[in-house]
């Protein structure tokens, strides 16, 4: 430990006093159980199963430093106290201790008298006026919450008859099925993998965060009736996790900003999550599960630590993401991959790789993390405007040059991708809205789906896509849409309700004229790809052309049809719409492949076991000898 701490001792003189406030993180990493030889120390190492690694990181800055490595060793109160005293002696105030909820770590909490419903801190052995607060790793708690919701269902209330679960796997599976049924959707990230995650996928935090997100919470009332309570529960979880996972002072969501920027709203979100965790039960269990206790411990320690840090000079906000184990997980990933991929290094390899990571470009300074400190300015997300034609605007008639008039829609075949100039010039203006008969004729349902729910989802998704194009090309043509922050609530069209629900002020509501053009674009797109593509498992074509220039063909066709629209707007639509169809076809084909694998497995399980053939005694003896390992020359 002393060798690792030398890095911090050297860097202490150049570290700001506020940035010296730190947290202790520890976790275990599996290692190869083989015996190995450490040439530098001339010793035989192993066999070992786990490496215990302790890291110290700033809670108000960007530095982090591994300080301790031991094999098959649990963190004891003596080790922890010795480390706290050493850091305090070097001038690093220890504010927090972070770990997961493994049995050894929970045993450490008990030994120190730490619990979610009692003391969540211990006295600092080097400073009587300060406490050391204990935290459970919040991302691990979120994954366990997701797992229990899907496996057991979430019930509210502690009584015997709790009724049906508020949120369970059936609800989530049905939601994923509904939002995945159409190309334009209200939640493109939600898939069956989020609901049926298994093995390694259950360890991915982003899958749990996306499943229990604000977008999913807002999707549920739009898809199902009478599920407002489920939406409220998921929204409380998402809001609480945002507060406990803040990474910068200002973020895209108010609750995701550093704790203290929107203090009233953030405290209310944490209190709601605390109440939910105290009343939630899973399956037939009547008591709080360990991950619930970990959540409650972290919430109460976060609030207490913030109050304590308010007394420190220069403190303005708390980045709660610095109070989880992400830094350690990142270190483990670097150890496994940076110097040649080895997911299970031996103890000697682990020590060598840690040494190489530490002696980098600045061996006398603690290693930096990707999370920016509070003192660094926020990076701008500005991009240079593309040079091109100025916005071209005209009357409504100037936007429209017919493409389907002059010949019947049934003449659009796989070889007729774009009409000729003569056909375009001889055409007459169509109706303002897309004819339903034309949509049905080219094989596209009027709203892109069959069921009423899917129609609404597809309509919301189409409006969102139109708003996306309008936002990206706002400088080219500002008439395409209006941002929600520039609109009064009563001025938002009824059809744009989904955009208004999702928006935090910066989403764009498409104009009526642009949305009408967007729907007419959809007719052209479907006509171009009708009867194209490769055969699916059921024999039908996937309706995605494999011809060269697929995006350019669509863009050129639309430019001829709508010459007054800027070609950069049309080009962006062509790429976006092609990628939406591409993603949808890939998802459908993946489903076909999984269905084929399931059918093959079912056939193998139904195949009868062959009856053993009774041969001669000589054959029986040879078979027995072969089974025993006999060798025949």
UniProtKB/TrEMBL annotation:
Regions annotated as coiled coil: none
Pfam families in the cross-refs: TNP-like_GBD, TNP-like_RNaseH_C, TNP-like_RNaseH_N
Domain of life: Eukaryota
Domain Transposable element P transposase-like GTP-binding insertion, residue spans: 140-252
Domain Transposable element P transposase-like RNase H intervals: 3-113
Domain Transposable element P transposase-like RNase H C-terminal: 323-347
Protein name (Swiss-Prot/TrEMBL): Transposable element P transposase
Organism: Amphibalanus amphitrite
């Amino acid at each position: 430990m002393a060798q690792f701490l030398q890095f911090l001792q050297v860097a202490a003189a150049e570290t700001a006093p506020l940035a010296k406030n730190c947290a202790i993180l520890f976790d275990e990493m599996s290692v190869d159980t083989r015996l190995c030889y450490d040439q530098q120390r001339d010793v035989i190492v192993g066999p070992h199963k786990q490496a215990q690694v302790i890291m110290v990181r700033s809670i108000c800055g960007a530095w982090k430093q591994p300080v301790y490595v031991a094999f098959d060793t649990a963190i004891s109160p003596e080790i922890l106290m010795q480390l706290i005293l050493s850091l305090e002696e070097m001038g690093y105030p220890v504010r927090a201790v972070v770990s997961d909820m493994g049995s050894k770590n929970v045993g450490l909490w008990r030994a120190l008298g730490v619990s979610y419903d009692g003391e969540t801190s211990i006295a600092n052995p080097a400073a009587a006026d300060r406490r050391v607060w204990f935290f459970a790793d919040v991302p691990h708690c979120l994954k366990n919450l997701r797992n229990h919701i899907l496996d057991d269902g979430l019930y509210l209330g502690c009584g015997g008859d709790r009724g049906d679960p508020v949120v369970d796997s059936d609800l989530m599976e049905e939601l994923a099925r509904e939002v995945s049924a159409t190309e334009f959707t209200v939640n493109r990230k939600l898939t069956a993998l989020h609901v049926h995650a298994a093995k390694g996928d259950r360890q991915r935090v982003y899958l749990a965060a996306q499943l229990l997100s604000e977008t999913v919470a807002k999707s549920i009332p739009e898809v199902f009736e009478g599920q407002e309570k489920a939406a409220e529960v998921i929204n409380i979880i998402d809001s609480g996790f945002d507060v406990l996972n803040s990474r910068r002072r200002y973020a895209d969501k108010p609750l995701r900003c550093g704790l203290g920027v929107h203090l009233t709203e953030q405290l209310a979100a944490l209190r709601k999550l605390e109440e939910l965790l105290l009343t939630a039960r899973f399956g037939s269990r009547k008591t709080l599960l360990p991950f619930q206790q970990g959540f409650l411990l972290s919430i109460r320690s976060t609030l207490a630590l913030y109050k304590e840090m308010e007394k420190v000079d220069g403190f303005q906000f708390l980045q709660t993401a610095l109070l989880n184990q992400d830094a350690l997980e990142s270190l483990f990933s670097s150890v496994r991959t940076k110097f040649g991929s080895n997911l299970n290094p031996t103890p000697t390899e682990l020590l060598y790789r840690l040494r190489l990571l530490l002696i980098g470009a600045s061996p006398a300074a603690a290693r930096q993390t990707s999370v920016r400190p509070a003192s660094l300015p926020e990076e701008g997300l500005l991009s240079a405007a593309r040079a091109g034609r100025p916005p071209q605007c005209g009357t409504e008639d100037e936007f429209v040059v017919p493409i389907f008039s002059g010949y019947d829609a049934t003449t659009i075949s796989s070889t007729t991708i774009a009409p000729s100039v003569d056909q375009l010039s001889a055409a007459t203006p169509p109706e303002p809205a897309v004819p339903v008969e034309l949509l049905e004729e080219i094989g596209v349902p009027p709203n892109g789906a069959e069921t009423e729910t899917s129609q609404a989802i597809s309509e919301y998704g189409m409006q969102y896509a139109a708003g996306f194009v309008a936002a990206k090309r706002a400088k080219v043509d500002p008439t395409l849409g209006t941002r929600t922050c520039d609109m009064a609530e009563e001025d938002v069209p009824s059809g744009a309700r989904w955009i208004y629900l999702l928006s935090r002020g910066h989403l764009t509501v498409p104009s009526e004229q642009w949305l009408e053009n967007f729907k007419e674009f959809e007719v052209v797109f479907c006509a171009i790809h009708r009867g194209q593509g490769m055969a699916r498992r059921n024999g039908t074509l996937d309706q995605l052309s494999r011809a060269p220039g697929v995006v350019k063909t669509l863009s050129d066709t639309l430019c001829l049809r709508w010459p007054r629209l800027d070609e950069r707007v049309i080009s962006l639509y062509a790429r976006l719409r092609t990628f939406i169809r591409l993603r949808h076809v890939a998802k459908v084909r993946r489903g076909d492949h999984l269905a084929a694998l399931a059918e093959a497995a079912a056939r193998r399980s139904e195949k009868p076991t062959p009856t053993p053939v009774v041969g001669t005694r000589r054959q029986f003896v040879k078979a027995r000898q072969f089974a025993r390992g006999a060798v025949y020359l």
